[in-house]
């Protein structure tokens, strides 16, 4: 099993046993972190962001902003930064060379070596990463919310979180995912990025990408898989609740819409930046680190509003070499329901363009809100049942995120108590 | 437009203007030929069988039988031979160095340079090509019907046939097909071999192979096509009539089940040998010469009875290098109707193996014979209408070959009158 990840570097693992860590972290300056930072600490520590070993220093941020590369030349498209106000830095007397203890859920969580304290022009960062300075773009808005200083340096997870049900069945670190892929005997597999519950249009995106990925494989055995890689991160009202996303995708395999031996549902933690093409590159990097060989990109991947052309996230891969990015993009247009064909068909093949019926989010939403079972060719009945069940069990009656869910949801993970 | 065909050789074209030929062929010994030989003369002369320039000499037959290669080392899997009885050879005084005038439809048709007259062990030929000596195997039976001598030598078409309606719209020589592919802007295209009218299972074989062929192509334009390559040759009772085969396939494009810009129906002439894996190689060679880059092979390609494992024709491509065969095989398992999915699904992906409903030829046949329109997800209504129309117009009331069709059908082509 290879442990080589993005940039040809070995998968980063910066996780230590809490028992061993406890002596070293006692007395460190404690810094409570918000959820986004906690998620990124977990991703860095388990190597999802290989070759990053921590939050970026100024040279890395500069490289990413100016050239879409880290200071060492490895392709990277989104700044991964730890922000802190100059007031807090002064108040706590933080200086380069210190080690900070990051606190999550009021527990010791990870250490951060303060290698560099720097500031950065946030307008420039936004303009270069998102192609716009518009504060209505959620990625720009997130950038503008950063405090006025960044701390660059390595992180180490000293108190690994425990994943909560139902996520515990779907969280695989890069090392674990690689072991799982080896166990399944997949020589190739294709990542399906999602933050949706799947209708049959999504199913066909996965089937398409499996076929494309499998293209020239011989017949003897199953050596190609689909890895659903659901993005768990900051939720907004109206999003699908996370529990519905993972459990409905898993249902596609459980109820035979995908064979047991070709399909796997998993999660990563990431707060969407909606950076369109640059985010597509970032997603490709993370899935490379998971040991996945191909990555599906559909229409308007990681886009928002009309900031990007629907296929900008396809085109950017024409500018990246196989040496710079090991994963192979599978670029798919649209699957829609065609009433003439009586089935879900591909925009690149079906000629009934006037009759086509797009899978509109609004229509799907109204189906779900009405609670009336749609035809099985649009929505699998088992998927529909699980949407309703998860709404009751986890969503305070709704499959869509509401205020109550935002305030009271079961968190993705629990940081175990650790006495210093 | 490249004119390089199989074996890296330029596409053979051995066709002369009848007006120029007439002086040279007057007085040659006239040999009436049967339909199989006429079809092979046409294929050779237009370069479908490049690098062959004529019927095989003994060294080529030996190479094909023993090593699946011509004497010059180029991969070749089926003997292409011109047989004649020793009695006829003696009666007509044919000797090496002669040129014969092959007569078709009582008209001068082609010349054959008698390079070599030889005999061959037909049992050995059958055993090596078909993997069996069983005379119930139609390929063996065809082999055993050969006369006791073969004549090897170049052929030249001196009186090109005129294709009859409806075939005239679908017959493209290798040079014409390459021009058509260039005109369509296809950088890749995939051949779909057929002797069937298409149900939706066939449609999905084509869609699957298009997706696999298109796999890593960028988004900007249509650069991948499907070329239906229907095999027109000796008919047996119960086969679909040729007119139904070509017109129904064309209807898939005409009525939008394939986009205008991705689909083309064409024909080749060939009497099926049912040689399974070896015939798959042969089909790949012919489509290479047509300028096609990929070739779909489904279950039991060119097989018959239980002489071959359903996927022997997939496995044989593992033994052939890209240097030996330029076309890329796309190996597809089965598409079936799945009542749980409510659609046509792929055996490699769909887990509802107990519920699956194969597209049985018997069921499809009974549907057609009853004349009751099946659901559009199984059989396109326009395809069904054309089956009934062609049955009336060309099939003496039947879409399946019967005695009357065998005796009175409109031939594929007419050899124009040519006075010597």
TrEMBL record, chains A, B:
Signal peptide: none annotated. Transmembrane segments: none annotated. Residues 6-159 form the ATP-sulfurylase PUA-like domain. It comes from the Bacteria. Keywords: ATP-binding, Nucleotide-binding, Nucleotidyltransferase, Transferase. Pathway: Sulfur metabolism; hydrogen sulfide biosynthesis; sulfite from sulfate: step 1/3. Coiled coil: none annotated. It catalyses: sulfate + ATP + H(+) = adenosine 5'-phosphosulfate + diphosphate. It is an enzyme of class 2 (transferase). One of its GO terms (biological process) is sulfate assimilation. Residues 170-389 form the Sulphate adenylyltransferase catalytic domain. GO terms for molecular function: ATP binding; sulfate adenylyltransferase (ATP) activity. The keyword Ion transport does not apply. Its EC number is 2.7.7.4. Belongs to the sulfate adenylyltransferase family. This is sulfate adenylyltransferase. It comes from Desulforudis audaxviator (strain MP104C).
């Amino acid at each position: 099993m290879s442990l080589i990840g993005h940039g040809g570097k070995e998968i980063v693992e910066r996780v230590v046993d809490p028992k061993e860590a406890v002596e070293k972290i006692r007395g460190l300056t404690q810094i409570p972190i918000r959820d986004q930072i906690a998620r990124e600490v977990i991703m860095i520590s388990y190597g999802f962001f290989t070759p990053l070993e921590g939050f970026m220093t100024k040279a890395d941020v500069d490289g990413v902003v100016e050239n879409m590369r880290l200071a060492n030349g490895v392709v990277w498209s989104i700044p991964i930064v730890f922000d802190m106000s100059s007031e807090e830095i002064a108040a706590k007397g933080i200086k380069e060379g210190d080690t900070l203890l990051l606190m999550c859920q009021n527990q010791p969580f990870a250490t951060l070596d303060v290698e560099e304290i720097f500031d950065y022009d946030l307008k420039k960062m936004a303009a270069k990463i998102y192609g716009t300075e518009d504060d209505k773009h959620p990625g720009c808005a997130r950038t503008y919310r950063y405090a006025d200083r960044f701390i660059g340096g390595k992180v180490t997870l000293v108190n690994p979180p425990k994943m909560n049900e139902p996520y515990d069945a779907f969280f695989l670190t890069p090392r674990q995912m690689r072991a799982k892929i080896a166990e399944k005997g997949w020589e190739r597999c294709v990542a399906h990025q999602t933050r949706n519950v799947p209708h049959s249009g999504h199913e066909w995106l996965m089937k398409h990408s499996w076929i494309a990925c499998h293209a020239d494989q011989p017949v003897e055995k199953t050596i190609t898989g689909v890895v659903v890689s659901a993005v768990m991160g900051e939720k907004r009202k109206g999003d699908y609740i996370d529990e519905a996303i993972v459990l409905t995708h898993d249902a596609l395999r459980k109820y035979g819409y995908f064979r047991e031996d070709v399909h796997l549902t998993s999660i990563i933690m990431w707060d969407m930046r909606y950076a369109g093409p640059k985010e597509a590159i970032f997603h490709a990097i993370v899935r490379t680190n998971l040991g996945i060989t191909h990555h599906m990109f559909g229409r308007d991947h990681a886009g928002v509003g009309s900031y990007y052309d629907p296929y900008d996230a396809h085109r950017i891969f024409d500018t990246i070499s196989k040496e710079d990015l090991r994963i192979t993009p599978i670029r798919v247009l649209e699957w829609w329901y065609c009433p003439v064909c009586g089935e879900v068909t591909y925009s690149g093949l079906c000629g009934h363009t006037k009759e086509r019926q797009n899978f509109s989010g609004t229509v799907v939403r109204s189906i779900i809100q009405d609670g009336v079972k749609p035809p099985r060719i649009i929505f699998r009945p088992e998927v529909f049942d699980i949407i309703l069940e998860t709404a009751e069990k986890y969503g305070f009656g709704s499959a869509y995120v509401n205020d109550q869910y935002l305030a009271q949801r079961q968190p993705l993970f629990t940081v175990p108590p650790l006495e210093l």
